[in-house]
Amino acid sequence: MKKKIIAAIFDLDGVLTRTAAQHAKAWKQLFDAYNERRKSEGEQPFEDFSIEQDYPKYIDGIPRYDGIRNFLRSRNIELSEGNDSDKPSELTISGLGNKKNEFFLKVIEEEGVEVFEKNIEQIKKWKSEGIKTAVISSSKNCKQILEVTGIEDLFEVRVDGVVSQERNIKGKPEPDIFLEAARELEVSPKDSMIVEDAIAGVQAGKVGGFGLVVGIVNGASKIELLDNGADVAVENLTQVKLK
How sure is the predictor about 63, in pLDDT bands with cuts at 50, 70 and 90? Predict the structure, then answer.
């Protein structure tokens, strides 16, 4: 698909790095541990968290605490909100979120972080051709992941979970995080491309009025991405032609 595009905004997990699967693993560990705790305390257990079904539907691409609310709501469970300083052992939305982060950091420490080489090479090519670049992520670990993988310098702008909290930016499927990246790049959304692998991400790109919404077939299928707002769905970025 060919359009006049002067800027590209990339999601981190599942587009640049292979961390989406590691996030999913950490979420599974979190909710399984919470379920076991409920059983041990005499509470009704809930249907186990499914990486295949629950992760793309309730979690993928969405800010951490929102993801917890979404999943617990699907199981008719309510917890108090708590706050960011809650210990990982506390049974609050924030406490569970902080526990999930512990699990995730342990997973990447054990497994390392891989990048999608073809996507990174294509981004380097576009950047050499003058395309402006930004990276977005709902994760508060975004900067650390970029540094670990050595791709931080590929992006002029970063809007992640830390920045979103500081600026009170709404998470996906709202388009705000992409619009903020476009604003920082000083480009119009209609002249910009977003690249996402999550359903919530392509929905956000569509609502935000971006010139081209590219879905990367990863956790979600090609049909799911196209049905939820992607203009095109590809296996990797070498299949996207901008000129």
Answer: confident
> Encoding tokens for residue 9?
């905004």
Residue 213, both tokens: 């919404």
The residue behind tokens 């640049």 is 16
Tell me, rounded to whole angstroms, the distance of Cα 184 from its chain centroid.
Answer: 19
For residue 121, what pLDDT is reported? Answer: 98
Q: Which helix (H) or strand (E) holds 193?
A: strand 192-196
Residues in CB range of 168: below 8 A, 6 or more apart: none
Residue 131 has pLDDT above 90, yes or no: yes
Contact 68/143 with Cβ under 8 angstroms?
A: no
**Helix-strand-coil split of the chain, %, nearest 5:** 50, 10, 40
Contact 182, 211 (CB under 8 A): no
**Higher pLDDT, residue 33 or 242:** 33
CA distance to 28, 35, 56, 75, per residue, from 48 (Å): 9, 8, 15, 10
Distance from C-alpha of 62 to C-alpha of 98, rounded to nearest angstrom:
15
Catalytic amino acids?
11, 13
**Encoded tokens for 71:** 């999943």
Spatial neighbors of 162 by CB under 8 A, at least 6 apart, are 140, 142, 143
- Residue 1 pLDDT more than 50? no
Which amino acid, one-letter code, is at 216?
I
